[in-house]
C-alpha cells in the first residue's frame, strides 16, 4: 500500500470521526435550544387539536381504496415529548425524552386525558434510546401552530420538494425519468406521509438528498464528496427518525447518484454503492452511539442496558406474543402491504409494456446490465428485513416503504435501457456498460 493511499485513508478516518463528534455536539446543542422555548405555547396549540386526535383514532386509513394508514399513536408520542415542561435539568429534558403519560392508556388517549382531565393521573415517562431530533423543529412550530396546521404545511412543503426534483430532472435533460420518479414516489404513499409526523423525517431527508445530488452531481463526480454526503445523510436519519423506513434515505438518493454518474461501469458502480452504504451506516450507527455516549455522561437516569435489550429485541425472530417472525413471513407481510397501493398496477403495466418493447428491440442484454448496475439499492430491502425481522414483522404498516428502493431502482434501470435504445440525442445514451464485457 502506497504512502499516499495510507494518508488518504487516514484523512477520511479523521474527517469521519470529526463530523460525527461535531454532529453529536450540535445535535445536543439544538435540543438544549429547543427546550429553552417555554412549553406552555406548544401545549396550548396541541390542546386545540385534541378533537382531531380523538376523531381519527390510532391508525386511521386516509383514503379508503388504498393503504394510506396514519400513525396517531406515534404522532401522539411526539406531541407529548415536544410539549413537555418539567422541573428537570435542561440537559436531562434534552436527552431523556420526558413526557406526561397515563401508563394505563395508549399515547393517543393519554394526550386527550392530559387536556381533559389534567395531570393528576399522569406519570413522567422516558424514551431515551433515540435522539428525538424532530423536537428541534416540532417544539418551535407548535409554539405558534396547531397540529392540524403543521400537517397542512407539511404536505405543501413535501409537494414543493417533489416538484423541485421534477424540475431538476427536466433541467438536466433527464425528463424521461420524471414518470418513473413520480410512480416510485407514489409507492411511498406521500398523501399519508404529509399527514403524519412520524413518517415525515425520512421523506424529507430522502427528497432533500435527491435535490442535493441533482444540483451537485457534475461537480462531485469521482470525488470524496459523495462519501461525506451519505455519512451526513445517515447522521440526519439517526437524529430525526424513530426507526420507520430509514434505509430509504440511502437507497433512493443512491439511485439518483447512479443515474447522474453517466458512463460508470457496473463494477465501478457496485464499488461506489457499497462504499457509500458503509459510510451511511457509519453515520447512522455512529450518531446513535453519540447519543448514548453523551447521555451516559450528561443525563441523569440513562440506562444503557435498556438500549442493548431494545436492539436485541428488534432484531429477534419472534414477537412478545411468541409469534415466529420467519424471514419469509416478514418479506410476505411487507410485500403484501406494498402491493395494496393501486399505483402498483400502473407500475406493473409500465414495466410489461416497456419490457416487450426492449425485447422486440433485442436489447434485453442492455436491460440486464442496467439491472446489475442498480442491484445494490434494488436488493437492499431484502438485507434490511433480514436484520430487523421483529420490527419489520410487527410494523409492516410502515416498514413496507423500504420496498420503494426496489421500485426506484427497477424503474430507473428500465428507463435507462429505453433511453439507450431510443435516445433523443447521442449524448443521452448510457453506452458505458460495454466496458463490463470483459469483467462482468
From TrEMBL:
The keyword Transmembrane helix applies. Keywords: Membrane, Transmembrane, Transmembrane helix. Signal peptide: none annotated. The keyword Acyltransferase does not apply. It comes from the Bacteria. The chain crosses the membrane at residues 12-37, 149-170, 182-215, 227-252, 273-294, 336-355, 367-387, 403-421. This is DUF2142 domain-containing protein. It comes from Lachnospira intestinalis.
Amino acid at each position: 500500500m502506497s504512502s499516499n493511499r495510507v494518508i488518504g485513508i487516514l484523512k477520511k478516518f479523521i474527517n469521519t470521526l470529526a463530523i460525527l463528534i461535531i454532529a453529536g455536539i450540535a445535535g445536543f446543542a439544538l435540543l438544549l435550544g429547543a427546550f429553552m422555548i417555554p412549553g406552555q405555547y406548544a401545549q396550548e396549540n396541541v390542546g386545540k387539536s385534541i378533537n382531531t386526535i380523538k376523531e381519527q383514532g390510532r391508525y386511521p386509513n386516509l383514503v379508503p381504496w388504498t393503504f394510506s394508514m396514519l400513525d396517531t399513536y406515534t404522532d401522539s408520542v411526539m406531541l407529548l415529548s415536544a410539549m413537555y415542561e418539567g422541573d428537570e435539568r435542561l440537559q436531562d429534558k434534552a436527552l431523556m425524552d420526558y413526557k406526561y403519560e397515563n401508563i394505563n392508556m395508549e399515547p393517543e388517549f393519554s394526550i386527550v386525558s392530559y387536556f381533559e382531565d389534567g395531570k393528576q393521573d399522569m406519570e413522567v415517562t422516558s424514551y431515551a434510546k433515540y435522539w428525538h431530533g424532530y423536537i428541534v423543529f416540532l417544539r418551535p412550530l407548535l409554539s405558534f401552530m396547531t397540529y392540524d396546521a403543521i400537517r397542512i404545511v407539511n404536505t405543501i412543503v413535501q409537494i414543493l420538494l417533489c416538484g423541485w426534483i421534477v424540475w431538476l430532472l427536466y433541467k438536466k435533460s433527464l425528463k424521461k425519468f420524471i414518470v418513473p420518479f413520480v410512480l416510485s414516489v407514489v409507492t411511498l404513499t406521500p398523501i399519508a406521509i404529509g399527514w403524519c409526523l412520524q413518517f415525515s423525517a425520512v421523506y424529507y431527508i430522502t427528497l432533500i438528498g435527491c435535490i442535493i445530488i441533482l444540483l451537485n452531481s457534475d461537480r462531485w463526480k469521482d470525488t470524496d464528496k459523495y462519501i461525506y454526503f451519505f455519512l451526513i445523510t445517515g447522521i440526519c436519519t439517526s437524529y430525526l427518525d424513530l426507526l420507520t423506513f430509514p434505509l430509504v434515505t440511502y437507497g433512493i438518493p443512491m439511485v439518483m447518484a447512479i443515474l447522474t454518474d453517466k458512463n460508470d461501469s457496473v463494477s465501478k458502480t457496485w464499488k461506489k454503492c457499497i462504499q457509500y452504504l458503509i459510510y451511511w451506516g457509519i453515520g447512522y450507527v455512529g450518531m446513535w452511539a453519540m447519543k448514548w455516549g453523551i447521555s451516559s455522561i450528561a443525563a441523569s437516569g440513562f440506562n444503557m442496558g435498556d438500549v442493548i435489550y431494545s436492539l436485541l429485541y428488534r432484531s429477534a425472530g419472534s414477537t412478545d406474543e411468541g409469534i415466529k417472525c420467519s424471514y419469509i413471513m416478514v418479506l410476505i407481510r411487507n410485500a403484501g402491504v406494498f402491493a395494496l397501493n393501486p399505483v402498483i398496477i400502473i407500475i406493473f403495466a409500465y414495466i410489461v409494456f416497456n419490457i416487450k418493447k426492449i425485447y422486440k428491440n433485442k436489447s434485453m442484454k442492455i436491460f440486464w446490465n442496467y439491472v446489475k448496475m442498480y442491484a445494490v439499492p434494488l436488493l437492499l430491502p431484502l438485507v434490511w428485513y433480514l436484520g430487523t425481522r421483529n420490527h419489520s414483522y410487527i410494523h409492516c404498516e410502515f416498514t413496507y416503504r423500504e420496498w420503494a428502493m426496489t421500485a426506484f431502482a427497477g424503474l430507473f434501470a428500465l428507463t435507462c435501457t429505453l433511453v439507450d435504445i431510443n435516445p433523443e440525442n447521442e449524448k443521452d445514451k448510457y453506452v458505458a456498460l460495454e466496458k463490463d464485457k470483459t469483467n462482468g
